[in-house]
Amino acid sequence: MARMTKPLSDTEIKTAKPKDKNYKLSDGQGLYLVVKKNGTKMWRFDYQLNNKRKSMSFGIYPGVTLKNAREIREKTKTLIINKIDPITEKKKSNSFNNVSFFNICETWFDLMRKKEWEETTYNKNRNRFLNHVYPAIGKMEMKEVSRKDILKIAQKLEELEYFEVLSRVINTMERVYKYAVSYEIVEHNIIADIDKRATRINKSSTTHLPAITKPNEIKNLMNDIKDFGELYNSDVSTVLALELLPYVFLRPYNIRHLEWTEINYEKNYIEIPANKMKTKKDFVLPLSNQAKAIIEKIKPYSYNSSKFVFPSPTTNLKAISDATLNHALKKLGYKNKHCPHGFRSMFSTTAHEHINKHGFNSDIIESCLAHAERNTVKSAYNRESTSKYFQEKKELVQWYADWLDNLI
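The structure corresponding to this sequence follows.
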């Protein structure tokens, strides 16, 4: 007697958490959900035709709901009964595919992941959609999404002052629509009709991010950061990531996604691989004594439980979100005054103004910030390893950390 499979429930699917390895949840009759290590949940259907076992994808949950997947399964079974290969039929027509905005975007993201993007680029772009786009229009059919729907998303991001996120979301969305038009999923690229001059969509590159650079204001900021943990009931990742920001002045993404494997305790430096850097080059930043002490504080909380130094409070499989540190600074009263990226400007301004005290030139300062060489002729002959200027950077980083502490 054949073993009966208990059908899945919506609750079981929603609460399914990623594990160290991909795993399956069966709904029966060949249909099952694959829960991947990165959290993606994908429907698959196994079948047999002409004495050959085959498998096909039904799309990604929640764009394709449990109900949708079962409906597709029944239509697919009808094709098989009539000796029609559903994979071949699927290539001919999208008639039984779910064309929700979510599903089309996820299909395109997977395509970019395979052909163009590195893993970090894929995660950054997809997370922007998970956080800011899918909640608003993910369940809608793509052809039903209007320009007004897109502008509502843009308006919300403007109100949050996420201008960089807005620009990247719209640019990515435009590529998705071009893909959808190419495959006749929609007839028109509605993003092309939006007047970007009437929004902040393309203004992020000229928008100066707020930064505090005056010593007396830096002193107040440093004191406020030290008090943050007592003032607010925040998780330890947020508190200590905020404490570390002034001492390492990395780009916010590199702070949030800092991994334990990127910290060299023996030689006291952080080494970030090229695929996580804006410059696409490996980067080494020496650690000051103060920075190392802060990292030691977080070690008991995440070293043995997450690859990330600062994991999300909801799951140790992810880093803290891009909004976390922004929100922390806003709570402290620094809205429109200072942002996570502003710590880079704070270091740069201070280091340049005190060259006569620490004795290191602009090349060393820019090297600490992982800035690409602007002089293309000079950079062509400047391809030294990541250890270039290491000793100078080590001394400058320690000088700056001591300078900060002397303010308090």
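The mean pLDDT is 86.
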